[in-house]
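2 proteins. here.
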Amino acid sequence: MPESGAVALPPDRDFIDESLASLEENLLFLQQLSQRPADQFLRSKEATYSAAYALTISIEAIAGIASHLLASLNHPVPKGMADSFECLFQKDILKSSGLVERLGQMSRFRNLLVHRYWNVDYAVVHQILQTHLDDFRLFAREIQNFLD
């Protein structure tokens, strides 16, 4: 039931499917970059900048999906990107509090990439590529499970 008492509209499956397809395309690219040894990755501006941009787009994709789902449920506007994941958890759309925490950290890292780009530690970007790409895929699976 929508929180505001208004009638909820179904989520736009085309938007979500297109967003998830774009996300998967970015994840495949990021996975390729993750295969580079850290020293090689860090010496390449092409690799570091590409990874930062693709990571930003991936984070934006999941945040956009989260915002869209919450809007379709007439949920009040979240306080921020990280809060949108918490709201999905509270609505039992996302099932793992650990995932929600990691996505919140990812959204805060996105803020660094976008707003304080001169302070980005690309070793951290490489570490994210090594350890957190599956978080995006878990998010996608949980969204698909909710929609199915």
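next one coming up
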Amino acid sequence: MNKIRGNMARKRILQRPKPYVMKENKRTGKLYLKRERPPFIGELPYVMALVIAVCFAMFSCLYYIQVRTKVEYRIHQMEALERQFLSLKNNNTLTERELYRTPDLNHIYEIAVEELGMVPATENNVRLFERSNSEFVYQTDNIPNMGF
């Protein structure tokens, strides 16, 4: 490159760095070529920015995985609670139906006494029989009329 300053032309001599340098191996003593690199001090801010960005991305991914795991765990808990709720609701419905199907004993007593003319048993109306080895009790006499 030629630069002109004033009335005198100067020729600039550029020295290119040697791309390879001969080095000697300390153990074996053999010569080998090593590539000379300029120091990358000017690139240090970019490298640091890249390292920070990679660390931020890594921690963001880990945080996302942690949050996603918590969400899935809570979804499974909610599903289990929903199943338990439906089971309890079904049991409650079955119990309620059974209660409505069960007759009211007071109402049955009123119908038996008032409409059918039945009377409650007294001690005079009850006869006890001795039980034999068999499971049946045989009636040999007629049941006496006690005035009913």
